[in-house]
Amino acid sequence: MSPRLRRPVREAAACLAALLALGALAGCTSYSGSKANQVSQWASLYSVVSDDQLVVQDITAIRLSLDEGRLRDVTSNCAGLVFDSGTAYDNLPAPDNTLTDELNVAYVDFTDAGTSCSAVRSLDSRRMKAALRTITTGLLSLDEAERRLAADGVR
């Protein structure tokens, strides 16, 4: 490669490295004040409450579609649960390790259940029943996380 071509390649590599470093620093947001204040700042910055509400709406839609016997809607809503759980998961970690753990368990349960039930061929299959049990377990973790958030002033 000629010296003329090497220089733009080196400059592009240096520019890319600088952008990656800035991106890494952007993910290292620091929060100030008490732990509750830090959690509140984090929840506000990442729209945690609205993301969790979307997950709960997906679960409600799954249950409604099940009650109405609509397989196609169930599988679609399960796929939506996977997507919305992934979006919520991307908000982690929280400034509180226990909160992070509770939300992590919930989001992983929802993703696993949604992945499983999005592929069911029957509403009364073992796979569907197992997905519903996993969703219930995830909701228990989400409920604990929401209590912790409320204690920190996040609503």
Write the layout of secondary structure elements.
Elements: H1 3-26, H2 35-45, H3 48-67, H4 71-89, H5 97-117, H6 126-151
Find the structural class using helix and strand composition: mainly alpha
Query: How many E strands?
Result: 0
Estimate nothing, just give the exact number of structural domains. 2
Distance between the termini: 59 Å
What this model shows, in words?
With 155 residues, the chain is mainly alpha-helical. The chain has 2 domains: 1-30; 33-151. Helices cover 78% and strands 0% of the residues. It has 6 helices and no strands. The chain has helices at 3-26, 35-45, 48-67, 71-89, 97-117, 126-151. The longest helix has 26 residues, at 126-151.
Keywords:
78% helix; elongated; mainly alpha; 2 domains; 155 residues
Short summary:
The chain is mostly helical. It is 78% helix and 0% strand. The longest helix has 26 residues, at 126-151.
